[in-house]
Amino acid sequence: MLYGRLDALREQTRTRIRDVLRMREENPQELSERESYNALYTDKLAKYTAAENGLCFGRIDDVDESVRYIGRIGMWDDEVDSEPLLLDWRAPLARAFYLATPASPDGVARRRHIRTRGREITALHDEILDPDAADALTGSADGSAETVSEGVAGESALLAAISAARTGHMTDIVSTIQREQDVIIRSHHRGVLVVEGGPGTGKTAVALHRVAYLLYTFREQLERSGVLIIGPNSTFLDYISQVLPSLGETGVVLSTVGDLYPGVTARTHDTDDVAAIKGSMRMVDILKTAVRDWQTVPSAPIEVPFDTYTLRVDKALATRARGRARSSRRAHNKAREIFVSTAVDLLASQYRKAISAGIDGGHDLLDRDDLADIRDELRADPAVRGVLDSLWPMLTPQQVLMELLSDPDRLRTASGELLAADEQKRILRARSALFSDTDAPLLDELAELIGIDNDDDDEAARAQWRARIAEAQDALDILTGSAPQDLEDDLDPEILMAYDLIDAETLAERQQHRQYRTTAERAAADRQWTYGHTIIDEAQELSPMAWRMVMRRTPNRWMTIVGDPAQTGSPASAGSWNDALEPYVAQRWRLQGLSVNYRTPAEIMDVASGVLAQFAPGIDAPRSIRHSGHAPVIEHVGAEELAAAAWQNLAKWRDEPGTAVILAPEDLVEQVRDASAHDDANTEVSVLSVREAKGLEFDSVLIVEPGAIAAQSTRGMSDLYVAISRATQRLAIIHHAALPAGMDQAASVR
Ligand SMILES: Nc1ncnc2c1ncn2[C@@H]1O[C@H](COP(=O)(O)OP(=O)(O)OP(=O)(O)O)[C@@H](O)[C@H]1O
Q1: Residue 441 assigned as binding residue
Q2: How many Å lie between the centroid of ligand 1 and the Cα of residue 589?
Q3: Burial of 613 (0-12, 13-18, 19+ CB in 10 A)
Q4: Whose CA is nearest to atom 15 of ligand 1?
Q5: Which of 201, 233, 536 to mutate to test the pocket of ligand 1 (most atoms within 8 A of CB)?
Q6: How far is the CA of 715 from the centre of ligand 1 (A)?
Q7: Is position 201 annotated in a ligand binding site?
Q8: For residue 197, which atom of ligand 1 is closest to its CA?
Q9: Which residues take part in binding ATP (predicted)?
Q10: What percent of the chain shows pLDDT beyond 90?
Q11: Residue 741 backbone phi and psi in degrees, to 5
């Protein structure tokens, strides 16, 4: 019945699209209407298509015998409008499906998980939450009904989901979201929400489902302003890219920090020590000075022929013009106009003096209009312009950064005491070098200092817009301060009111920018776009400079930040959540934890915990929810055999379902890749460094030389912890050097 209804809705939408395309538009207004209807229906059709798999995955029977079906989208009966046939999983009425427990059944007598393949039901599983009411229920799932205890909900459905072989792309968890996850996904907290949890606790999954939930609940606002998701690398973004479309949501901007600056793609990767320097807050002052260093005064006067006279741009003239321009406090390119007009004024009076020299009352030769003409001529004069350009040139962020990082003198002057000589040496690079992954935050900072707008005419409107957001934020902060701290209670109407204010301003400002491109397309191309909500995954890795860039894009500070400090790999990291967030929101951020590991089986987590205990003795690894039955294996081999042994070991798993990876120290990755070149059977297997595997997971994980991984940086042990916890089923370790402390205890030696 539900699929029949879905088919009917699809057909209806297709017809609407056809009708819209047939419409003949007479004027721009009609064209715009046609475009927006077309976009609306196309979007709807995509949602219906995405709902095809697992359309309905749950049912709850209430003690009063009413029944609710839960699925990927909401559907209503055409005839009886008020009766939902299927509840969207995000609807308030569907929430009991995720939250009801035997201790607090919330009126639910039975929860049923429905598994389907295509349009066929393959399994039903019932949980009886209220045994007294259960007798009255009809249609029990034969033999699989269980009276559940507190703990995980839908245990067999969950175990089936997390034990399934992986495909290389993350899948949605909509049918098995757990209580602690649901609380985060549906949180109405309007400020910064930090979600912290160990490996495999579903942080990424929760963040993505939260996006889907927020888009459902605050659709009007977020569709206009857009949602930004920041991930650690492009492999990760590719890995998660299917989740939102499978939930019927598109139009979200996914980016790494390195690619967030429009028009610049990071092509190289900085070493840890370089990243740490370039990511530090010291760069704020260094860049400020770097831009000021382009505002020069001549040491010797520059002579400029003009008319039949020679004018002189000397130190005093340039210093005066520069002082005027600087004291305007405008960004460099914007202040240039003040520099030029002051200099031109001074040159005009030089000229006046020159032509009147020796003539009694000569200055009266020129009236106001003449002077205005002379100023115009001076401005247009190529020689004058050339000199003024050289003293206060128009700049681009790319040019300033490139010059700064390739010119030792510039770098030394800009750094002052802030960078030691050896630090300067480390970040210097060739003039022709490609942009690296730590450049974007610096370019973004420079764009602010230089004053790069997408559309200069809009600057006033943008400033006003920012000011309004800031006002709304102040109002919100006051309200948040007095709001109840319990997440369950925070549907405070007052808080929504404050944000309604922002919403109104968004509407006012953004309306005039309506174009035919989607919000996501416009947002991604616009450096000054301010997103409605921002999600940062693996946020523990962000440097202070990266935080600045991300915060600039989220002035309303409505953010979900997910991460695990114990998995921090980058020495450039801003440190604790408090260190990272304090400059922007002071103490006004909320922490939510996740405690259950859905990915890594207990046998493998034992090994990971041994490593964790070595470098973070105060932190407990998350509790694994299952055993895989595969004990981790460790093999010692000769130094020359490492790469070959890795592939031989992997061959033993070749018939196992799912995905496999070899994780190697950075300097061995190429060697291990090369060792497989002659074997076609290995083409499906990736060889990655731990950095590249951040956030990913694989059924079989083979780690080469863990001692070298641990030794490769100051965060090496943390990298090793990340590497081990990528496995969903099997783990093998091939080593020649000694194993790092804490590793040998839990693993059985083959
Ligand atoms: N409620 C759930 N139902 C089914 N699968 C789940 C659930 N929660 C998490 N998972 C699965 O567990 C795995 C780990 O989730 P995810 O990658 O989101 O964890 P994470 O906390 O981001 O991990 P890490 O920090 O190690 O990268 C994924 O395969 C995810 O689909």
Answers
A1: no
A2: 24
A3: middle
A4: 202
A5: 201
A6: 23
A7: yes
A8: 21
A9: 197-204
A10: 63
A11: -55, 145
Best probe residue, ligand 1, of 204, 233, 235, 698 (max atoms within 8 Å of C-beta): 204
116 is known to lie in a ligand binding site: no
ipTM score of the complex? 0.99
313 Ramachandran zone, left/alpha/beta (phi>0; psi -120 to 50): beta
- 609 Cβ closer than 6 Å to some ligand 1 atom: no
The C-alpha atoms of residue 354 and residue 342 are separated, in whole angstroms, by 18
Q: Which two tokens stand for residue 705?
A: 């030389």
Q: Of 161, 165, 150, 147, which is closest to residue 110 (Cα–Cα)?
A: 147
Q: Which atom of ligand 1 is nearest to the CA of 207?
A: 18
Question: Rounded to an integer, what distance in angstroms lies between the CA atom of residue 61 and that of residue 71?
Answer: 15
Is residue 622 lining ligand 1, measured as CB closer than 6 Å? no
Q: Is the CB of 697 under 6 A from ligand 1?
A: yes
Give CA–CA dist 704/701, Å, rounded.
Answer: 10
Calpha distance 535→214 (Å, rounded):
11
Instruction: Return the closest-CA partner of residue 161 out of 73, 68, 263, 57.
Output: 57
Q: 196: Cβ below 6 Å to ligand 1?
A: no
Cβ neighbours of residue 391 under 8 Å, at least 6 residues apart?
Answer: 295, 296, 297, 298, 313, 318, 322, 339, 343
For ligand 1, the distance from its centroid to the CA atom of residue 245, given in whole angstroms, is: 18
Q: For residues 146 and 155, what is the distance between their CA atoms, to the nearest angstrom?
A: 10
| H helix count then E strand count, the chain | 31, 23
Q: Per the annotation, does 204 bind a ligand?
A: yes
203 is in an annotated binding site: yes
* Structure tokens given for 19: 């009708």
- 667 contact partners, CB below 8 Å, separation of at least 6: 708, 712
pLDDT digits (tens, 9 = 90+) for 478-508: 554 444 444 344 444 444 444 444 444 444 4
Digit-coded pLDDT (tens) for 605-617? 999 999 999 999 9
Angle formed at CA 637 by CA 631 and CA 639, multiple of 5 degrees: 140
Q: Is the CB of 161 under 6 A from ligand 1?
A: yes
How many Å apart are CA 724 and CA 566, to the nearest integer? 13
Check pocket membership of 423 for ligand 1, CB cut-off 6 A: no
Lowest mean pLDDT among 107-111, 147-151, 472-476: 147-151
Q: Is 415 in the pocket of ligand 1 (CB under 6 A)?
A: no
468's tokens: 């309004």
Q: CB within 8 A of 14, min separation 6: which ones? A: 45
| Residue 345 burial (CB count, 10 A) | 17
Give me the residues paired with residue 127 across strands.
111, 146
Known binder of ligand: residue 296?
Answer: no
Edge-to-edge order in the sheet of strand 748-749 = 686-688, 660-663, 698-704, 727-735, 633-636, 748-749
Q: What is the DSSP letter of 113?
A: E
342 annotated as belonging to a binding site for a ligand: no
Q: Which residue's CA lies nearest to atom 9 of ligand 1?
A: 202
- Residue 369 class from Cβ within 10 Å (0-12 exposed, 13-18 middle, 19+ buried)? exposed
Gap between the Cα atoms of 157 and 173, Å rounded: 11
pTM of this structure: 0.85
- Helices assigned H by DSSP within 455-528: 459-482, 493-511, 519-525
- Give the residue, by CA position, lying nearest to ligand 1 atom 16: 202
Tell me the CA–centroid distance for residue 38 and ligand 1, in Å. 36
- Residue carrying the six token digits 């030792």: 408
| 101 close to 85: Cβ distance less than 8 angstroms | no
pLDDT tens track for 497-543: 444 444 444 444 444 444 446 788 888 888 889 999 999 999 999 99
Pocket of ligand 1 contains residue 207 by CB under 6 Å:
no
DSSP code of residue 738: P
Three-state secondary-structure class, residue 387? helix
Sign of the alpha-carbon dihedral angle for 438, 440, 444, 450: positive
d(CA 482, CA 458) in angstroms, rounded, equals 36
